[in-house]
Specification:
12 strands, Rossmann fold, 6 helices, seven-stranded mixed β-sheet, alpha/beta, LmbE-like protein
């Protein structure tokens, strides 16, 4: 049985760093799991507060200011719409119950920011804030995710590989957090491997690749919900910074 087939009938928690990551990296995978028996949950660490803004947005969206309350609320709404398009009914933000360790007050993990160090490869921002996801200890964030895993009666956890997909510091941190939380709860941890990269860490022979292109229309609809960050042009997605890449429908999974 393949790893993907083994997800049928399971309670699966998929952990991501920012709104839109769930669709960009795992949209086809989420649509596939959501169409099968079992439950799929998405946990998002931050609200993507430091994301840029796609030019040419209509109406009030054009006046949004990254980092502002209205911008955060707008991105939360985009995320909700994207999850609905993918068929996902369960979502939580890390640090908010039930994704908060028992006995601790609610908190928000902020977007750590990033900078491009080469085409398609991100590096840490120069001005990471004290409330940033990467500034928090792995133990605290992993405790929050573990609380959600128990509340969801999860069978396994899925998140980024050790490189975070494209080395965004929040993605790398979420890999560490998800792996730690899975270990704490005694659960299997699967890594999502980005297609087309030549710098994937670990043993490439253990990756199971699956073509999920039948879910392309669903992923396109979910990506359109994230209009502040991306545009859909046929089978491609164009990012706010102008980077263009094929919409991911070829999914790689590997047991960590």
């Amino acid at each position: 049985m393949s790893l993907l087939e083994g997800l049928r009938g399971q309670n699966v928690v998929v952990a991501h760093a920012h709104p839109d990551d769930e669709t960009l990296a795992t949209g086809a995978l989420l649509a596939e799991i959501a169409s099968a028996p079992g439950e799929v949950h998405v946990v998002t660490a931050t609200r993507g507060e430091r994301g840029e803004l796609m030019p040419g947005l209509p109406g009030r969206a054009a006046d949004l200011v990254p980092g502002s309350w209205s911008y955060v609320a707008y991105r939360e709404g985009e995320l909700a719409a994207a999850l609905s398009a993918l068929g996902i009914r369960h979502h939580a933000f890390l640090g908010q119950p039930p994704a908060r360790a028992e006995g601790l007050p609610s908190r928000s993990y902020a977007d750590s920011g990033m900078r491009w160090v080469s085409p398609g490869v991100a590096g840490p921002a120069a001005d990471v804030g004290a409330d940033a996801f990467t500034a928090a200890g792995v133990g605290e964030a992993a405790g929050d995710l573990a609380a959600y895993l128990r509340a969801a009666d999860a069978d396994l956890v899925i998140s980024y590989d050790a490189g975070g997909g494209y080395h965004h510091p929040d993605h790398v941190r979420m890999h560490e957090v998800a792996k730690t939380a899975a270990r704490e709860c005694g659960l299997t941890f699967l890594e999502v491997i980005p297609p087309g990269r030549d710098d994937i860490p670990g043993d490439l022979d253990t990756i199971e690749w699956t073509d999920l292109s039948r879910h392309l229309p669903t992923v396109q609809a979910a990506l359109r919900a994230h209009a502040s960050q991306v545009q859909v042009e046929g089978g491609d997605v164009v990012h706010v910074g102008g980077q263009r890449e094929p919409i991911v429908t070829r999914v790689g999974l590997r047991r960590a």
